[in-house]
Design a protein that fits this description.
The protein has 219 residues and is an alpha/beta fold. Helices cover 30% and strands 21% of the residues. The strands form 3 sheets. Strands 2-1-3-4-5-8 form a 6-stranded parallel β-sheet, sandwiched between helices. Strands 6-10 form a two-stranded parallel ribbon. The model has no long low-confidence stretch (mean pLDDT 86). Bound molecules: NADP nicotinamide-adenine-dinucleotide phosphate.
Length: 219
């Protein structure tokens, strides 16, 4: 089966593409580096022809609310419209555990994405994962200056490989119209996760702890 993987060159997307291929599917990668910009729709025409399903693992590299909402709103609308026009019958979207409860700017974008999927033209499945074990490293590397601000909250990290397997397994199954969860096996606090915060090969960084307020905690 032809399966479009939006964001198929990213951390999770590349794993999904590998797993779909191993399962005998034909992944079609949608990414700017493959000539498709989902926010504008450029390069999308005809790209989804013959795709029966779409896995959406796109991402925007901003934690601010406006760019995050702008990205997920435009990319999701363009993707769903093109997939519906091409006759696709299932969209599988990766989201985040706790997306309803956290008011970080990025989460507004993810909530917008979920809303568009739930109310969109295609039967859908949403998988909500916790943070990947692989998540902190690019965050630390990408930070400017000697300090990195990290949330202090409890999290239950999961392996990106496990999440990619769950997404790939969703292909060929019926849409569930539910938000499934994919948490890791045990909880830990960010600054102690993973053990490699001060990697000898990486730039020296100090971690500043901060608290993220959940919506339910606000007066
Ligand atoms: N990281 C975590 O711990 C975690 C946990 C739970 C859920 N998630 C969710 O998982 C998803 C994927 O995260 P990730 O870390 O794998 O992302 P990533 O490594 O940053 O990859 C993002 C992908 O999106 C593509 N992309 C970005 N802008 C695009 C555009 N305008 N048009 C087309 N493609 C575009 C990128 O390719 P190009 O740059 O070539 O365009 C790339 O393939 C996100 O939605 C995130 O919310 C992440």
């Amino acid at each position: 089966m032809r399966v479009a993987v939006a964001g198929g060159t990213g951390l999770i997307g590349a794993l999904v593409v590998r797993k779909l291929t191993a399962a005998g599917h034909e992944p079609v990668v949608l990414a700017r580096s493959r000539g498709v910009d989902l926010t504008t729709g450029a390069g999308l025409g005809g790209k989804l022809d013959g795709c029966e399903e779409v896995v959406d693992v796109t991402n925007v590299l901003s934690v601010r609310r406006k760019p995050a909402v702008g990205f997920f709103a435009a990319a999701t609308r363009n993707l769903l419209d093109a997939a519906a026009t091409a006759g696709a019958r299932h969209v599988i979207t990766l989201s985040i555990v706790g997306v309803d409860d956290v008011d970080l700017g990025y989460y507004f974008g993810k909530r917008k994405q979920e809303e568009l999927v739930r109310t969109g033209p295609l039967p859908w499945t949403i998988l909500r994962a916790t943070q990947f074990h692989e998540f902190p490293e690019p965050l630390v590397d990408g930070a400017r200056g000697p300090f990195v601000v990290v949330p202090q909250e409890l999290t239950q990290p999961v392996s990106a490989d496990e999440v990619a397997s769950a997404l790939a397994r969703g292909s060929g199954r019926s849409p569930t119209a539910t938000c499934g969860r994919s948490p890791g096996p045990s909880g830990s606090r960010w600054p102690t996760w993973p053990a490699g915060w001060s990697r000898p090969a990486g730039p020296a960084r100090s971690c500043c702890r901060c608290a993220c307020r959940a919506r339910s905690a606000r007066p």
